[in-house]
Design goal:
This protein has 196 residues and is α/β, with parallel strands linked by helices. 35% of the residues lie in helices and 19% in strands. The chain is built from nine helices and eight strands. It has a single domain, classed as TIM Barrel, CATH 3.20.20.
């Protein structure tokens, strides 16, 4: 059932920063879960992921909430700057809520973050480094946005090529989760979870 697995709950519970793995297929989703990821993100065409994992799924495509629901996702991405005209942002938010999906607002600057807060007040933000200045590292761009995320909201860093050092820096800064594109999740979380 869509919406049964809450991304917000998965990344806010427990100690430390959470890893959300961008996966391409069911095997990658299973591997990410086995290595300690607390969520997975998919793009269109990632067949079989819902049946392969019990983790919450973020539909990592700026698409309709219907598409996210059809892929079995628990949360959908809205790129705020792409939908800030008229009432479109509010309509997407309302539709996602109707489907039981959590909204993840993709923001890349102070303006898009402020717009999302004013118009849809999402609980989760994906801090994107796109449009960073030439002399600014991706992690610097994300950390520059972090202070503008209000207390009580969740911040996910979109740092797909993150290293373990990046993860530690983001965790110290107060980021809740990191979206990564890697097959070595265990290296980023500091080792696989203990066997129970």
């Amino acid at each position: 059932m869509t919406g049964a697995r809450r991304l917000s709950q998965a990344i806010s519970e427990g100690d430390g920063i959470s890893i959300i793995a961008l996966v391409a297929d069911a095997d990658a989703a299973r591997a990410a879960e086995d290595q300690g990821a607390e969520g997975v993100a998919i793009r269109a065409g990632a067949a079989g992921v819902r049946d392969a994992t019990s983790l919450p799924i973020l539909f990592r495509v700026d698409a309709s909430p219907q598409a996210a629901r059809d892929f079995g996702a628990d949360a959908c991405l809205i790129v705020v700057e792409e939908h800030d005209e008229e009432e479109h942002l509010e309509e997407l938010h309302a539709l996602a809520s109707e489907f039981g999906l959590e909204i993840v607002a993709d923001v890349h600057d102070e303006e898009s973050l402020a717009t999302s807060l004013e118009r849809i007040d999402p609980e989760i933000f994906l801090l994107s480094p796109r449009d960073a200045e030439d002399d600014e590292d991706d992690i610097e761009r994300i950390l520059d946005l972090l202070p503008d995320v209000p207390a009580g909201k969740l911040a996910i860093a979109d740092l797909q090529s993150a290293t373990r050092d990046d993860i530690v820096s983001l965790e110290r800064a107060g980021v809740d989760a990191v979206l990564v594109d890697t097959k070595k999740i265990a290296d980023l979380v500091g080792g696989a979870p203990p066997e129970v």
